[in-house]
Amino acid sequence: MNTLIRRLLPAGALAGQPSRASLKKFDQWPWHALTAFLLLALAYGLWYSTSLISYEWRWNRVPQYFAYQAEDEHRASDFGRVEDIAVRGATSQVVLVSEAGNRQALEVAGDSLKLAKGDEVAEGDVVGVTRHWKLGPLFWGLWTTLWISVVSGALGLVIGLFTGLCRLSNNPTLRDLSTVYVELVRGTPLLVQIFIFYFFIGTVLNLSREFAGVAALALFTGAYVGEIVRAGVQSVARGQNEAARSLGLTGAQSMRHVILPQAFKRVLPPLAGQFISLVKDTSLVSVIAITELTKSGREAITTSFSTFEIWFCIAALYLVINLPLSQIASRLERRLAQSD
Questions:
Q1: Which of 26, 136, 142, 178 has the fewest CB atoms within 10 Å, counting from its CB?
Q2: Are 152 and 218 contacting, i.e. CB atoms less than 8 angstroms apart?
């Protein structure tokens, strides 16, 4: 019985001593303290650098670029006068009577009312405004970045899977064409490819800038995914395919049910890294006038003069997108490893 208890309890527990795992965890606290110190030093260095250039932080200007209260002006439609004003809480209903006897009822915010009862109005005079919440440019830029990333990533995955299999094909034409595609895309900058798609192919085929941007990103991603898929399939032992064929499976069935599932487990980390890079690469489509997150930030800077605040927010938004992707990939990788 004592032997069984000693096996179940951690080492040193019966003697009132901490376990080896707890001691190891306790020994790591100086390294965690060093990490915290380095982060604090980095934050202090950033603050000190901005103090040298006498930069004034204006974080209060940033929220309006995510959501703000828009004002819609209400104007008099004709010459006349204010017949009546009825206050209804925070709003006021204004009744205007034109010279021809026509009535116009307007409901405006009470604190924006510019007229009083009996005042004369001319055509186009502002009576007041109504307010409503409206999403700002940074929100719409974030949304554009998200949908471009999702669409380009899905298309790039399909293109990459097909390209990777063609690279392993016994057909020389498929193998050669896929090799030319991969080398051409990997050997030229993405920015140049976007320009070619928009200014050349887009002009010839009359494509929209969004279509050109998504196509360029999808083909760029597909080339790298194709190489990842090829390497993953080649990493699976040749005996797996031979065993599947000996069981009566066709080449396509063997690839689908035996080879690709094993290859997917091995290529998951590089695939996740490629899609994270794709999210950041969407910033390049701003050169063809697509207002994604980075371009929205540049436009916000021109009106707010809050350069550092906007760029820090943009960096944080990219981080908010990519961190969950990295965590999901890590969790999926651990789950697939347990299923082996």
A1: 26
A2: yes
Amino acid at 159: I
User: CA 99 → CA 95, 105, 112, distances in Å?
Assistant: 13, 15, 25
Reported as a pLDDT band with limits 50, 70 and 90, residue 4 is: very low
Distances (CA, A) of 61 to 136, 140, 266: 12, 17, 46
Tokens coding 293: 């997150």
Cβ(244)–Cβ(262) under 8 Å?
no
Q: What is the pLDDT of residue 249?
A: 76
DSSP summary character for residue 57: P
Q: Would you tell me which CATH number, out of the four given (1.25.40.340, 3.40.190.10, 3.40.50.300, 2.40.50.100), belongs to the domain 70-134?
A: 2.40.50.100
The answer to whether 271 and 175 have CB atoms below 8 angstroms apart is: no
Q: What is the DSSP string of 315-340?
A: HHHHHHHHHHHHHHHHHHHHHHHHT-
Backbone angles phi, psi at 269, to 5 degrees: -60, -50
Tens digit of each residue's pLDDT (9 = 90 or more) over 68-77: 888 888 888 8
Q: Residues for the chain: how many in total?
A: 340
How far apart are the two ends of the chain, measured CA to CA in Å? 35
3-class DSSP state of 135: strand
Residue-wise pLDDT tens digits, 250-274: 777 777 777 887 888 888 888 988 9
What are the boundaries of each domain within the chain?
Answer: 70-134, 139-338
Q: Are 286 and 292 in contact (CB under 8 A)?
A: yes
According to CATH, the superfamily of the domain at 139-338 is MetI-like (1.10.3720.10)
Closest CA to 231 of 180, 268, 190, 278: 268
DSSP label at residue 165? H
* Distance (Å, whole) CA 301 – CA 60: 14
SS3 of residue 102 by DSSP: coil
Q: Which residue has the higher pLDDT, 338 or 41?
A: 41
Q: Is the dihedral of CA 260, 261, 266, 271 positive or negative?
A: positive
